[in-house]
Amino acid sequence: MMWIDIMTLFPDVVGDMLCESILGRGQERGFIRVECHQIRDYTTNKQNQVDDYPYGGGHGAVMQADPLYRCWAHIMEGVPEGQRVRTIYMSPCGKPFKQADAVRLRDDYDRLILVCGHYEGIDERFIEECVDEEISLGDFVLTGGEIPAMAVADAVCRLVPGVLSDPECYENESHWDGLLEFPQYSRPEIWHGRAVPPILLSGHHANVAKWRRKQSIIRTRDRRPDMYAKLDLSSKADQKLLQEIAQEEAEQKNGGAQSHD
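-> structure tokens emitted (261 positions)
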């Protein structure tokens, strides 16, 4: 079972989101467990204050180290012996989160503690003492760490065996093998004059798989050239697909040029 603890100032909001749909059913069946901890419960003042002015001056406030530490220590007291734990601070200064990180966190740890900052951030001393790694969702700043924590929890939990019905549910998705996912279609067959590609109606599974692989290659090349540059397409099957793609695109280009003549 994968266990995720989320340290936050808004446990109800975070908990409600992660108890719905697929993750909710995963918790009911015992494959995953998500617990949210109110950081304010671990303050030592009557006002439940968790922040104060930053040393050195500046705008805003900084979350204090002590309430964070008390919350973290309470979680750690309940960790069974031998359980592999990783404390992660959701931070714009962290390493950008990738699908490979979701797989790594699922495989290497039994329990994740996700720390959600707010205001101008958290006291660096807590990070130095308790945090194992910092993770960012990308090169932008959010008001707090709750949205990143929910994203990381979702990405990791859906990979836990039993949460989804079959590994193929995530193995064919974007970023799993370095490719973006192929286009998907559902009923009706024609919508607003747009038809489903005939190959998907053929019932020929090998041809469908080939078409999907082709579309994933094209989509990755056109939308994420950075990912495409890292792909290994040296196999005979992929080399043949690349030749077919080039031929089909040349024919489309020539056909378009002729139509303008």
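Strands lie at 2-8, 32-38, 51-52, 62-63, 85-96, 111-116, 133-136, 190-191, 194-195.
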